[in-house]
Amino acid sequence: MGEAELINERLRKLEEIKQLGINPYPYSFDVKNTAKELKEKYAKLKEEEQTKDTAVVAGRIMALRRMGKASFVSLQDMTERIQLYFKQDDVGEKLYKLLKLSDIGDIIGVEGDIFKTRTGEVTIYVKKFEMLCKSIRPLPEKFHGLKDAELRYRQRYVDLIMNTDVKKTFILRTKIIDAMREFLNSKGFIEVEVPTLQSIYGGANAKPFMTFHNELKQNMFLSISPELFLKRCVVGGIDKVYTICKNFRNEGIDTTHNPEFTTMESYEAYADYNDTMKLTEEMVEFICKKVLGKTKVKYGDKEIDFKVPWQRMSMKDAIKKHYLLDVDKLDDSELRDKIRDLNIDAGEGTRDEMINAIFEDQVEKHLEQPTFITDYPKQICPLTKIHRKDKDLVERFEAFVNGSELANAYSELNDPKDQEERLKKQEEARKKGDEEANPMDADFVRALEYGMPPTGGLGIGVDRLIMFLTNSQSIRDVILFPMMRSEK
């Protein structure tokens, strides 16, 4: 039968259920147990041992084996699956007929006694049961779940039903974010919320999504970063502040990028990027131990160890090590020739932009184990403090794992005049066509003029961290509802 015929058959059964005087969509059910809890509690029962212990569970029918006046059902709740045994003489003719009108995918609630079958499976001997939701659309055949990745992401609800590992990933996601909050809270950080809809965007080099506010009659932007609002909090005297929020960047989609993603940003007064490096590695190590019980994780065919301390290396030293090039020995013309030889699209970039382009193209892919890359060129970092030992650099680091950026941090710029000049240059670049340059934010400069203490700022890509800790090869595997092209 095709899907349309199967749906029509289920609609016919739905009408039969109603004719039995049964509501196939009742309002509630008093669940008292879970499949996992029962299987663990009664694991030591002997084969064919029966108890008088009553269990009440609810879930979705995932397998159904009828044998005349007796039937076995595999019921899946949020925790796992458990076997049910139905006997017509015990549940009565009306309810047994209801079972005959049931299909894989239907949601039912049952009450019964616990026993173990001769094959050693913990089972509920059903005495009562209710139809809680009649499923109209059949689940994918063969019960192996959706294989088409595009369909899995688009129909995540089916993916969660059919692929138990997917559900485990998103349960782990929640635990990872909980552990992140626990760590920051234990360090005295205060969690705050920042606006998603903003009149001026900033805090990152990114093209924003734009909309229009009818009442105010002005353009508005979805947040590309919470940075400038969190710094305002530090100006206001919240010395340790963080947020876990969504960022929206009008950019491409690949295995490590989704236009809507989750970030954690924190700012600590009286700290610099060295303090923030320590905070970063200790936080990730804490999360690993709390959620996974270990610091070593399998990622693809590699083993990554998040144990403290992580490797540290300046950007220029990393280029020397992995590309065997000392950029300080090349003038701008020689550097541009090198860019052309590598076929890197850096346009008419500045020296700083060319150095960064070489790093991104030739070095990042070699950074498999957790590594802090420090001391970035000044011109590509408009919100960062000048390096205390080299005025051409800034005190910034990025943490890399498996060739991908995991975290970004600065000794934050708190000189209002310097900040104003840098933002003016960004504004000029934006007016000349650089869609990722920051606009001028006069109110942020005004906030800095009131005085912001020395501050260490950190941003962690939450989705990417979850990818590493769940061995997920695509960011879409750790975002419940990733960005998709509109369905035809």
Description:
The protein is of the alpha+beta class and 488 residues long. It is 33% helix and 26% strand. It has two domains: 3-139, Nucleic acid-binding proteins (OB fold (Dihydrolipoamide Acetyltransferase, E2P), Beta Barrel); 162-310 and 369-477, Bira Bifunctional Protein, Domain 2 (BirA Bifunctional Protein, domain 2, 2-Layer Sandwich). It has helices at residues 3-19, 35-41, 88-91, 93-100, 149-154, 156-162, 164-186, 227-235, 273-291, 315-323, 332-341, 351-362, 416-431, 442-449, 462-469, and strands at 50-67, 70-76, 81-87, 107-116, 122-133, 190-191, 197-198, 210-213, 218-222, 240-248, 260-269, 296-299, 302-305, 311-314, 371-377, 393-401, 404-411, 455-461. The strands form four sheets. Strands 6-10-11-18-17-16-15-14 form an eight-stranded mixed beta sheet, sandwiched between helices. Helix 7 crosses helix 9, helix 10 (315-323) packs across helix 12 (351-362) and helix 11 (332-341) runs parallel beside helix 12 (351-362). The radius of gyration is 29 Å and the shape is elongated. The mean pLDDT is 95.
